[in-house]
Amino acid sequence: MSAQKSYNLQDSGVLRFPEGFVWGAATAAYQIEGAARDDGRGPSIWDTFSRTPGKVHAGHTGDVACDHYHRYPEDVRIMGDLGLHAYRFSISWPRIQPDGAGPANPRGLDFYDRLVDELQGGGITPIVTLYHWDLPQTLEDRGGWTNRETAERFAEYAAIMYSRLGDRVETWTTLNEPWCSAFLGYASGIHAPGRTEPEVSFAAAHHLLLGHGLAVQALRAAGASQIGITLNLAPVLSDDAEAASIVDGLQNRIFLDPVLRGEYPADVVERAGRFTDWSFVKDGDLEIISQPIDLLGVNYYNPQTVTGRAGEPANPVYPGSEGVAFPGADAPKTAMGWPVQPFGLTDLLVRLSHDYPGTPLIITENGAAFDDVVEDGQVHDVGRLSYLDGHLRAAHAAIEAGVDLRGYLVWSLLDNFEWAEGYRKRFGVVHVDYNTQRRTPKDSALWYREVVRRNGL
Ligand code: NCW
């Protein structure tokens, strides 16, 4: 990485993070790897969805993406230049089991073997996410996450991965943001597989959770010591306590309570009652889902602002949210239109450690999309830099308040395929020119390198 600009933060020692705090960055397989047909990879629901007209901006697909499958040595070098301690990446299930079941594809396993070796060679700790949304299409053809069997297949795949990487990977995350898989995938249809059937989305959520629990059992039996799940959580801001509680239930507690308390929240069960009789929950499921975990991964971007409004139809991403309106917040917005409200991160972390004590937390994603431009080989992404600065201050405030926060992983290392938004939204701290695949660290990356070096702001 060229030294384009150096940020000399005042070494005031005012905001020092705890010793051993883990600094890193995150990505996901379909968003960066490309090589969609290489080495025996099978199709995933995102290959199918991105080829369905009208689903992804400008018909973009992950066919090439950042070509990380071939360029991973350069990407690992960039991480090294930034001084990152850890790198969170996801494994493409259809590279490992092209049909979602059966024996592993050796060439798929080899790729992750090479990646982990490269990381270790660079002194970077790998953090594996087993599922970041790219379900093998064959499993979707059999019902996807609405089918209980998908949970069983997921645990088998988890065991395959542990047997190959478990000697070098200590930290395992089962699912990334199961809320998105269930409710963007099966209720609103904004994400793959694009189904708009709110009545099955709660079964999908349950089978995702069951898959998580079965995978924890499989990983634990194989010897894994650091296992977690990553949830996208959002504090809910409202002048109306009932509206706030409805959305908090459908966004946060629907996943937190089963995993960390072994039960579904009664109000959520009742609200979803108009769609489902919950008969997909079998005896013993909640014991499986609430297997102890070692770490809770928190993805935080923004709070949700809601208000009660009689007659308001349900928001398609929150089936059962009739009577709740989403007016948006009076705050600056990122290129995604997401409000910038760092205080929400402090609130969320403090609330988690209060309501669900005993599980260490790690921020597995936090970051922002902005419309960046490269000027003379530099990207002056002041908006992102200030977003990250504000959120690190917010995370620090939570630590000061007693929260057991172990690390921070910025989303994302690279600009990448931003799902339904295609390549037009850029979350990276490193810019990617999709014509040349040239990587250019943005000002935010150079600033982050200093944060990591100083372990503080
Ligand atoms: S889409 C999304 N993201 C972004 C993505 O790049 C990453 O893979 C995810 O883990 C950044 O972080 C997560 N999150 C969910 C966005 C929800 C959008 C809801 C739209 C409601 C109308």
Automatic annotation (TrEMBL):
Positions contributing to substrate binding: 31, 132, 176, 301, 411, 418-419
Keywords tagged on the record: Carbohydrate metabolism, Cellulose degradation, Glycosidase, Hydrolase, Polysaccharide degradation
Pfam families for the chain: Glyco_hydro_1
Catalytic activity: Hydrolysis of terminal, non-reducing beta-D-glucosyl residues with release of beta-D-glucose
Transmembrane segments: none
InterPro entries named in the record: GH, GH_1_N_CS, Glyco_hydro_1, Glyco_hydro_1_AS, Glyco_hydro_1_beta-glucosidase
Origin: domain of life: Bacteria
EC number: 3.2.1.21
One GO CC term on file: cytosol
Hydrolase is among the record's keywords: yes
Record SUPFAM superfamilies: (Trans)glycosidases
GO molecular function, one term: beta-glucosidase activity
Keyword presence, Phosphoprotein: no
Gene Ontology process terms (BP): cellulose catabolic process
Catalytic residues (positions): 177 (proton donor), 365 (nucleophile)
Stated family: Belongs to the glycosyl hydrolase 1 family.
Protein name, entry field: Beta-glucosidase
Originating organism: Streptosporangium subroseum
